[in-house]
Design goal:
One of its GO terms (molecular function) is beta-N-acetylhexosaminidase activity. The protein has about 900 residues and is an alpha/beta fold. The protein has 21 helices and 40 strands. The strands form eight sheets. Strands 1, 2, 3, 4, 5, 6, 7, 8, 9 and 10 form a ten-stranded mixed β-sheet that branches. Strands 11-12-15-16-17-18-19-20 form an eight-stranded parallel barrel.
Amino acid sequence: MKKCKTHILKIIAFLVIAIGFQLGLSGQTISAPKYPIIPTPQKGIYYDSETHFTDFTIESNDFNTEGELLKSYLTTKGFLHTKDGFLIKFIQKEIPENASDEAYTLRIDEDITITAKTSKGVFYAIQTLKQVFRQGKDYGILPQLSITDWPAFKIRGLMHDTGRNFQSLAQLKEQIEVLARYKYNAFHWHLTDNPAWRLESKIYPELQSDDATLRGKGDFYSQEDFKEIVAFAAARNITVIPEFDIPGHTDAFRKALGFETMRDKKLKPVLLNLFKELLSLTDAKTTPFIHIGTDEVRNSYEHVDNKLILSIMNLLKKHNREVIVWEEGIRIAADTTSIGQLWAQHPLRKGHRFIDSRANYVNHLDPFAGMSRLFFQQPTLQKTGDNNALGGILCVWPDDKVSEQRNILKHNPVYPAIVFYADAIWKGKDKDYPKYWAKLPQVNSQEFAAFANFEDKVIVHRDLFFKGKEFPYVKQTDIQWKVIGPFNHHGDLEWMFPVEDGIKNSYKIGDEVYEWSQNIAGATIHFKHFFGFPALTNKKSGTYYTYTNIYSPEAKTQDFWVGFQGWSRSGGRRGGPFPNQGQWHTTNPKIWVNNKEIDPPKWKQPSLTNNTHEIPFIDEDYFYRAPTKIYLKKGWNKVLLKIPHGGTSWKWMFTCVPVNIDDDGNVNEVPELKFDPALRIYSDYYYDKKEEFETTPDTENEIIFLGNSITDGGNWKELFPSMNTINQGISGDVTDGILNRIEAVTALQPQKVFLLIGTNDLARGKTVSYIVQNIQKIIKTTKEQSPNTIIYLQSVLPVNPNVGKKFSGHKSNGEKILELNEELQKISSDMNVNYINIHKPFSDKKGHLKAQYTYDGLHLSEKGYLLWKKRLKKHIK
């Protein structure tokens, strides 16, 4: 069998390839396909069919190198290159839709056709082909599709600071391979910094001396190593941008060569010689850019005469190299040609070309909220690049010492960042969304759907292409929280607020009423972002609480990632100081699951101060320490977190998400756990009963008793043994609660529903009009979803003044109950439902609940239920 098509459903049907739904771009919101492509191609369709093959033939013509690349890939997968196998054709031709030399078309049908003007385009077509390839039992599988694709920006890169922390050639090559897969074309190599000068100099070997090297003594790149990385990257259409960062960040340089200050007159020829040596290692075609730094010149001994910088620029330009400098950096009026690489929020220089690295420093990103920032970021603040806006580069600055090289990838979400940023820098964004740089969009919004759809694609790629690699990301868009606060703790981070005593709709403290937020999605929530990006508050301190409910089908001990206030791998352990044993953080946050407080980890290096550059991170963040083990009961589990802020803390945030981690460190979702998207403010009992109702088998002619504890306490099957009665009362329920679970009623299409609700609403301060509106919604929803159901609306029962302290909120509601019942009778008539007045037979002469029918002043005794039965008997029949 050479090829065959299977699963052909409707050849005409197609999926628009704007699969991730790029904001503002053409396309439609649809779920991620079986074969997600990242970055999303500019144009194209998937056809609803597949092609299978067992052997293949490549016609490469003018693209022999790329043909051999694809041949090698397929043969390593076990497929034979034969004379008359599944045909793969390479055609050299201009792409009419776009003039980029990286553009390509890819068509998979009866055969494969790749069209491109240059080898770069063919290479990117092959990367796309590799992403959609699937391995069958003894055959290859490809989706049928047609794509036309090109990049929005000329420069798409990743920067690594190896001056501070060395990385092996193997580790750099691994990352370059990942960059190639996602169509990046630049590797910015920061080779020098205060701790070390990492590129071998044969002119000045002192630069690699142990005396000059603060970290990783003896760790440097030989000139042959440098050439090897340049060649390795070039074979993958990635340009290396080497950087010698001067005149700041030069402690190692000055120490090695004995310069006390960068104004030393002997310094100029040394620097010129070092740049000449760098230029000699590679040609201008392969390495067209040289970066000279110039940022953060903050000490007097780092200041230089601008003529020195100009002389270096002129040297590089003489050798046909483009000069890149940091912005903010040294600005020289005579410099009219340099390319500015923007960082932080620094503006570009008018008239200069620029590369955007603002707001995308990976060492400051957490694995969850940080990915929202990269997804919603518009590189260069333009939809596409032009002659000035060249593109963007992700930057990894692990300023603090690491104990081993691999920790750079463990402690920083490098691989997730590459994948999430790929769409923005290749596909382009119609709009910049800084309001989502620190938080996900509102649930159910178009922007939220866009992120969720792209997230689905990322999860597929994680599982296909990152096995055994550090990819600390799980699906987070199905995690939802309620948030309340910030409460004023008056400088006392341990101040306890009433939320810790129980979940209620609202809390009144002094003259201020606090209510829970709308649902907020995400595994990480920033209350106030440390860089000032829009979050939930602008207050400088306070205490937030947040909660959710998690359903587990069985009792189990589950791994969770739990963290508070976060850490930046930068600038002296930013996020410190580190907590003492027994603390999650110095701000004393807490987490409870089912009212049981969860203990923090046993820290390996507690009580460290902020400014400890030379002490490596070990277990400070949740994603590189052992997960927290939390016992979940069968059914719904309440998760409550307390997150104070103040004192010396820099960040105000939390992370909480269940994870599965295998023996190889691969991270996955926990599919059997379910987060409650409703997140109303009810008891654990409510959620357990709601789940029970939702799984009730459908029978015939059900009669449902719907309400709160008064209904819940009735044994309706004994009271009406010949009827198919179902008790859907829940102790403590309110009208909002009935609305939240009404579908469990209407799903059964019952014969009759007897509704009694409202007394708890009054006790919790809800107005009569609020209760009436909700009851109208309950009736309307029931009629719409179960039109044959007969509805009986019952009056609210009276309350006895001797009701105990536990139910004291009901004691003074006698007049409000009468007012409510009058309104219920009116809406019964208006909405054509049956009204049953059960208030009157249960009332004494003063309108109170008769003592013989209650045991606590609110709930009914056995005699009470028998009287109620008597009032309902004729309606039941």
